[in-house]
Design the sequence.
């Protein structure tokens, strides 16, 4: 069972940037595909970005060109660099193991991202 801890969220103005981190403990991190998801108030949790064990990346259309997912296997950590943030990016962001765009296993506590207009 992989335990995940997200961090790096905060309050930022429109057009600003944040870098989220997700530290993993347990399991063999380097072999896992990992992903970021987000859940806005009253909305379902949605897939944002994924990275496989070979560091190939994929994104939902709304964040392409603005967000970058990466991983550091030596630190068992996956990152989400978020640039050109918009108010509609406001949500709690979670990381998870993934199969494609589907989450696998347990969630961390999430980290709140708020983008003010």
Sequence:
């Amino acid at each position: 069972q992989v335990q995940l801890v997200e961090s790096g969220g905060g309050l930022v103005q429109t057009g600003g940037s944040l870098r989220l981190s997700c530290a993993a403990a347990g399991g063999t991190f380097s072999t896992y595909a990992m992903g970021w998801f987000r859940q806005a108030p009253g909305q379902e949790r949605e897939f944002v970005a994924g990275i496989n064990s070979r560091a190939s990346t994929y994104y939902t259309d709304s964040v392409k060109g603005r967000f970058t997912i990466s991983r550091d296997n030596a630190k068992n950590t996956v990152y989400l660099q978020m640039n050109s943030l918009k108010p509609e990016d406001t949500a709690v962001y979670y990381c998870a193991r993934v199969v494609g765009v589907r989450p696998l296993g347990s969630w961390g506590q999430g980290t709140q991202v708020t983008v003010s207009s």
Residues 92 and 112 are 4 Å apart (CA to CA). The longest strand covers residues 91-99.
